[in-house]
Specification:
With about 260 residues, the protein is of the alpha/beta class. It has 7 helices and 13 strands. Helix 5 (about 210-215) links the parallel strand 11 (about 200-205) and strand 12 (about 220-225).
Length: about 260
């Protein structure tokens, strides 16, 4: 399948239009016309070579939403016209214990990332969602509910699942007290998801500058980590803390006051 995307041709190059071929449908594949793709900072790190050498030219993008254009003969879950999504994986062995537990990211034989990795069968380099089309194994395709706006769905495929996973793992629900460190892309998502689950949410930040923004997202307010008295008063105030800060930072003050929390 001929398609076009935006690719980086080297670590210091800008993304430019790139014509390439998607693989032909295998029996268990789904072909998708991409409608929207989120921009994650991981895409920038990857194409810039921050995480090591890459197989350029490289089309990034792993927050993909679109519509099924075709399905292989063995596909049972999707049909043409279905609204679907794809995250950071496009294949796994589907045979190991991890895959059987729906933990394909821990596939014993190695999962296949959405871009920048050899295809499990052909060996060709996978290319991501900054393009018009993509072909993905059925098991790694997700359904988008009809009442969800496609144009707003893409971040759920990365920032969404990144914050939803710990909230679900720790059984966050009505009455759970959740602290969210940082109010960036993941922080906003964590606040909204935890609030939707019924939790009482507080954002933990260096200052209260984003308090109005935090409250607009569903938090009850901000706890300033630089305010020693406020931090002391908040000892044992949370059942769960989600740290969304993407760079190394000092956790000493936070840990000092919450070492006795049940779920650190």
């Amino acid at each position: 399948m001929k398609t076009i995307g935006y690719a980086a041709h080297s670590a210091d190059a800008k993304l430019v239009p790139y014509h390439f071929e998607r693989r032909e449908l295998r029996p268990n594949d789904v072909a998708i016309d991409i409608q929207f793709c989120g921009v994650c900072h991981s895409d920038l790190h990857t194409v810039n070579g921050d995480w090591g050498p890459q197989p350029y030219p490289l089309v990034p993008g792993h927050e993909i939403v679109g519509v099924v254009s075709a399905a292989g003969p063995e596909v049972t879950a999707y049909k043409e016209g279905d609204r679907v999504a794809v995250g950071c994986m496009v294949d796994s062995c589907q045979e190991c214990d991890q895959c059987h537990q729906h933990e394909e990211q821990y596939c014993r034989n190695g999962m296949t990332p959405t871009y920048g990795a050899p295809d499990r069968i052909s060996g060709e380099i996978t290319q991501g969602g900054y393009s018009r089309h993509i072909v993905v194994r059925e098991e790694l395709v997700l359904r988008i509910p009809d009442n969800l706006d496609l144009s707003r769905s893409a971040p759920i495929l990365c920032a969404g699942i990144t914050t939803f996973s710990p909230l679900r793992t720790w059984d966050v629900g009505e009455g759970t007290r959740v602290g969210v460190i940082g109010l960036g892309g993941l922080g906003h998502m964590a606040v909204k998801l935890a609030t939707a689950m019924g939790a009482e949410v507080t954002v933990i930040s260096r200052s209260t500058k984003k308090e109005a923004e935090a409250k607009a997202s569903g938090a009850r307010g901000i706890l300033a980590s630089t305010d020693r008295q406020a931090m002391q008063a908040a000892a044992n105030a949370f059942d769960l803390i989600i740290d969304t800060v993407p760079v190394k930072h000092d956790l000493t003050s936070t840990r000092r006051y919450w070492m006795s929390m049940a779920r650190w």
